[in-house]
Amino acid sequence: MRNDLPSGARGVRIIGTGSAVPEGRLTNADFARMMDTTDEWIKQRTGISERRILDLRTQGCSTLARLALERALEASGVKAEELDLIIVGTVTGEMTCPSVAARIAGEIGAKNAAAFDLGAACCGFLYSLNIGESIVRAGRARTVAVIGADAMSSIIDYTDRSVSILFGDAAGCAILRSDDDPSVGCIYQHMGADGSGWHALYIPRREADVPVEDSANPIRLGCLRMNGKEVFRFAVTKFKEVLEDAFAKTGLTPDDVSQVVCHQSNIRIIDSAREKLNIDPSKIFVNIDYYGNSSAGSVGLCLDQLSRAGKITPGKPFMLVAFGGGLTWASSVWKT
């Protein structure tokens, strides 16, 4: 981190993005061979046809995080040694210590960067983005890499139908840089959490971590457990609330934004919020059909794909929203 930057108002730009997904695919047909389910049953409930899966014998969350970072650095023209900070939002790091961020900083030669991981489940990228933007705007750093990355296959019990069909592996990265124009960057951000609902979506490591009401859950320890009905109700309600709050606080309307970049949780959740707020379908990007729910990797992956497709319109605001385990939620509205 730096203390030599000049004081005064500054803006923040996203100057490059990158993403990474594994080559391996796990299709609905594969699940139909593994358990009692069908392609139609899965697509009807989730909108998912396939998801990308790592080879965990030789790869992990840090594999994807590093690739996404390297591609974002290439897109931005930034050298690794120029980074002041690397933040990785993840819940699936191979080790608690060292962090994924510290490992990949060393691997790419980011010798001047502070580095840490952040745990906010599916909100990991947005929490990281909001914190990174705030640090740059405050003048504590000039160039920051924010990454959302999760190897969800490493915490999935593939004998369970209710959870396993939803998740895939992915990473997305954005490079933030200080700008002399204080009007550019994040014009509104919000982060929230309700810890009283943690038991709806959690990863127990010990028997003592399992609530009494979930003691009969057959999913093995160390794997993700989810109360599907409770999470669905939370997500449908919170997604709409977060969008409404962001529009109200910024004075923007759905017509004013180029894109609403949203966490890819479930197609029914996305469609419900879009219809209730009357948002043009072309403004809500959907890739869940081919990548599944990649947790912290989701929003960053979408942002990179949209950026490279030219869908983030220069001069027009765009909005990012997410919700997930914790329970957590977040928004970030940007002016380019």
Question: Would you write up a description of this structure?
Answer:
With 336 residues, the protein is α/β, with parallel strands linked by helices. The protein has 2 domains: 11-179, Peroxisomal Thiolase, Chain A, domain 1; 185-335, Peroxisomal Thiolase, Chain A, domain 1, CATH 3.40.47. It is 32% helix and 24% strand. It has 10 helices and 13 strands. It has helices spanning 28-34, 39-46, 61-76, 100-108, 124-137, 161-164, 228-250, 267-276, 288-291, 297-308, and strands at 11-20, 24-27, 50-53, 85-89, 114-118, 143-151, 169-179, 185-193, 201-202, 225-226, 260-262, 318-324, 328-335. The strands form 4 sheets. It has a 5-stranded mixed beta sheet with strand order 1-7-6-4-5, sandwiched between helices. Strands 8-13-12-11 form a 4-stranded mixed beta sheet, with helices on both faces. Strands 2-3 form a two-stranded antiparallel sheet. A hairpin with a 3-residue loop joins β12 and β13 (328-335). The chain is globular and about 60 Å long.
